[in-house]
Hints:
Order of helices and strands: EHEEHEHEEHHEHEHHHHEHEEHEHE
Number of domains: 3
Oligomer: single chain
Structural class: alpha+beta
Amino acid sequence: MRQILHIDMDAFYASVEELDDPSLRGLPVVVGGKSKRSVVAAASYAARPFGVRSAMPMGEALRRCPQAIVVPPRMARYAEISARVFAVFHRFTPLVEGLSLDEAFLDVTGSGSLFGDGATIARKIKDMIRGELGLIASAGVASCKFAAKIASDLEKPDGLVVIPEGTLREFLAPLPIERMWGIGPRAAERLRPAGLTTFRDLAETSLDHLETLLGRAGALHVQTLARGVDDRPVVPGREAVSVGAEETFEEDLVDRRAMELRLLDLAGRVAKRLHKAGLEATGVTLKVKYADFSLKSRSTTLPAPIADTTGIFNAAKAMLDRAPKGRVRLLGISAGTLTPADGAATGTLSLFRDETPEKRRRLEEVVLKVGDRFGGLGLTRASLLEGDEPTRGRPTRR
């Protein structure tokens, strides 16, 4: 039988903030921008009894918990800690599939002779993360990815739930349909009035009946999983997916110049994160959310890897030209298709080398070194010092 683990760090961003500032422990910590229009990135367990959850608008979170301590996200720090967590995973198996900075699937089927069964390995990983990093993780152990992910969420925080061999369908049967991948609030609103409230109901009802509610593909998907059938393999090598930054604005942006200024700032933050991680990117994605909450994205593939502010900004600005016009409430840039930086170190040479990217890289290094030396108050671009933009708005950063 396959032994699949799903490891999920508990309240990861908030826990890292408590780790770095012990005075926050036990307090209702909310990670996110202070603007009421921003979104909660994470909430400590002390904030959750007030109903504060991730992805909740910050304004609602502060109404529910006025005493909450709002801490701005530090993605570079979270990525640093995440790398150390994933290093623990790799001590037990090379088959590690990262879903995000704070969760991953591990296939430990072939690790039993060295480390023990899935439950034993999960305990060792949890103990190592606690002992070496001072953080708490929850784990689920099952014969498939779907069930392992559900199990890891059942006894948070610091949970360990093992689904014994031969009991998977019995384990799933009483669970509410909302725990099913692919069933959101709208789907649940269609299923519950039809008497389908548990996994058992989804597994035992006719496929034709499910089709009338979810369509053919959706019906087949949820019924297959409800019966405990999930043969998907753990796919390694997905830890570093992208590096990005985004801002939600107190006031919608309508002026193109104001949008470009914010894109330039975002490009600088992405470049800094790439540089600190020792990465370059050949893919750049622009994210635009409008006043009506509609969301558009544009992506481009570059002819050569970049990690500098100017290169990222130029790519984002070109994509902004292709985005619909309108009042903008959020802008975001992410860099993907990541590779280790410094092509020369890996033997990538050219007889006719383009000096422009190299000059940009050296300039980026100078800017970052000055910023580090003076506590982030070093060099900045003159255009970002403009203060007479009436539609800039005050940003909420991520």
